[in-house]
Specification:
The chain is mainly alpha-helical. The protein is built from 19 helices and seven strands. The protein has a four-stranded mixed sheet, with helices on both faces. A three-stranded antiparallel sheet has the order 5-6-7.
């Protein structure tokens, strides 16, 4: 949800709106706009400090949950207040346009209907600055509670023989969040707009009027975005403080996985987050500039097989070309404006063309966000399925039956029937590490490896063997998977439905990795996310597929139908746009 709201801040600024550069009108509205953000941040900082003083009492969990919910609503309020500043009388865009005009090559050529700011980057940076500073202010308010939570976990980690790390100072905490969230989204947008500005400036210098340049800026932005999307990973890896994963057995294993999957990439990187986030990511579409990132917290806390499951999930995103589909989605959003949007504008009153353009732009962005969330959730599920089926077959080295798996790769994971949550009235369950997370009972058969260099982390002790004993109402532990395997039957099913499928072993390892990731990130098991299904939903789906290998084939067919629907929409919109341009 955080990424969606940050994208909305950028989208609100970039939406067309009827404003002109003029005198400083509505100064009172401007003061109210700025004061609203200051009051919002001050209220949350005060709330956070009060809770930090009361931390440790019997109502601790309830207070923290309320504060977290309040911060979520505060982020929504930041976006809503920016919309108020732009569209409800504060004339925020007018003030910003006047402020950045000297450095944005504000130009009005003869015949232009209205003045135009040729350069977009200065306006975006100044226009979104109050909202982004307020966003950082909410992290400032959260810091005391986050620090208390980390300090409380130190004793438990020491007792378990796990590495411990001191909580970061406030400045480092804020910088880390800016890198991981704001820069992760804002940097590619700034790079695309910077290239757009260079192209627009070149056209203006070549003799085109400001109005003519503005009329084709959408078509300038599309290739600029495509170019930046290809090369941005080179810069983003530095902004995210990522470096090459150290050489060792883990890196060699992950490299071997990429070779078996036929995956080309530039490097596997260690994403340093001050051990604040357990996550993985893929940056880049072009293999020459493609990076796979694993955070320090994830490598430190997950077992070898769980790390492989998370890595396989990221490989699944690459193999299924999910980044390319997202690029296609954004291209289709432009075609919606150029095709159906142009037709609608032609039918309506020409006197209200600016209002019509705003409505079309808002509708196009809304549809894009809805479609992006829908596709993202489906793609996350597809990546989970890919990881589970590759783990099941040990990357297609056998047909999927566990009898073909090398003994060194076997894991004692037992998952039987999935049952609805009934304990505690369906509320979050407590795990051994504290907090409300569901977990799979996991006994990894990995050897103890205190040498941190084997995982590419220097100076830190690691335990690749781990026993995670927790309770859950969703998974009932019983008969070992190894005892239930039917090699001949599994081999026949594998030949019938394809080279791989989601079996019990693959589903169990992937589910355990999801559980462990949720625990590390203090994520409730039923926490809703616009881009991801909940952890509980993802586990249920994997267990559903593992009940019958034919279910994997049904899922594959559904994803094929989804891709065909997207292709059909592309054909219709391209045709519509061409027809509209020829009128």
């Amino acid at each position: 949800m955080t990424q969606v709201l940050l994208l909305l801040i950028i989208a609100l600024w970039m939406l067309p709106s009827a404003h002109t550069v003029g005198p400083w009108l509505g100064s009172a509205g401007l003061l109210v706009f700025i004061a609203g953000y200051l009051l919002m941040v001050a209220a949350f900082v005060y709330w956070g400090r009060r809770l930090a003083l009361q931390f440790g009492g019997p109502r601790e969990y309830r207070m923290q949950r309320r504060f977290s919910a309040g911060v979520r609503w505060g982020r929504i309020a930041i976006v809503a207040w920016m919309a108020v500043g732009i569209y409800a009388g504060a004339e925020w865009k007018t003030h910003v346009a006047r402020l950045v005009a000297p450095i944005s090559l504000y130009a009005a050529s003869p015949g232009d209907a209205s003045p135009t700011l040729l350069l977009a980057v200065p306006g975006l940076m100044v226009g979104t600055l109050p909202s982004l500073l307020a966003w950082i202010g909410l992290w400032w308010a959260q810091y005391p509670l986050d620090r208390h939570m980390r300090e409380r976990q130190l004793a438990g980690r020491m007792d378990a023989g796990l590495p411990v790390h001191a909580p970061p100072a406030l400045g480092r905490y804020l910088l880390g969040n800016v890198r991981q969230q704001i820069m992760f989204l804002l940097l590619p947008v700034l790079m695309a707009l910077a290239l757009h500005d260079l192209i627009s400036l070149g056209l203006w210098v070549a003799g085109l009027s400001a109005g003519a340049v503005a009329s084709i800026e959408g078509w300038v932005l599309l290739p600029a975005g495509a170019i930046v999307f290809a090369i941005a990973p080179l810069i983003m890896t530095r902004a995210l403080n990522a470096s090459q994963l150290g050489d060792g057995p883990l890196r060699q294993r992950l490299h071997g996985i990429c070779q078996r999957a036929g995956l080309r990439y530039r490097d596997i990187l260690l994403w340093r987050t001050d051990y604040s986030m357990g996550n993985a990511a893929v940056l880049g579409i072009v293999p020459r500039w493609r990076y796979i990132l694993l955070t320090d917290l994830l490598i430190e806390n997950l077992s070898d097989e769980q790390i492989e499951a998370v890595f396989a999930h990221e490989v699944g995103h690459i193999v299924h070309h999910h980044a390319g589909w997202f690029v296609a989605l954004f291209a289709l959003s432009l075609l919606v404006s150029a095709g159906p949007g142009a037709t609608l504008a032609r039918w309506l009153d020409p006197q209200s063309i600016h209002q019509v353009e705003e409505i079309i732009a808002i509708a196009s962005i809304t549809l894009t966000f809805v479609a992006l969330g829908y596709l993202s959730r489906r793609f996350e599920r597809q990546a989970d399925v890919y990881a589970a089926r590759m783990l099941q077959t040990d990357w297609n080295t056998h047909t999927g039956d566990l009898a073909g798996r090398p003994a060194a790769r076997r894991t004692s994971l037992r998952m039987d029937a999935l049952e609805p949550a009934v304990a505690h009235g369906g509320s979050e369950l407590a795990c051994s590490g504290g907090g409300g997370f569901e977990a799979v009972s996991l006994e990894m058969g990995c050897s103890h490896s205190p040498d941190s260099e084997s995982r590419g982390l220097k100076g830190v002790e690691h335990f690749t063997g781990m026993a995670l004993e927790t309770s859950t109402s969703d998974v009932r532990i019983s008969q070992p998977v190894l005892e239930r395997s039917k090699p001949a039957h599994d081999r026949a099913l594998s030949l019938a439905i394809g080279s791989s499928y989601v079996g019990e072993y693959g589903a169990a390892v992937m589910a355990s990795a999801l559980d462990r990731a949720a625990e590390m990130n203090q994520m409730p098991k039923r926490a809703w996310d616009w881009r991801h299904p909940t952890i509980a939903e993802r586990k249920r789906f994997l267990l559903h597929l593992s009940a019958d290998p034919a279910n994997t084939r049904i899922f594959d067919q559904r994803m094929i139908r989804l891709s065909l629907w997207i292709a059909a929409c592309a054909v219709v919109l391209i045709g519509w746009t061409v027809w509209e341009s020829m009128r």
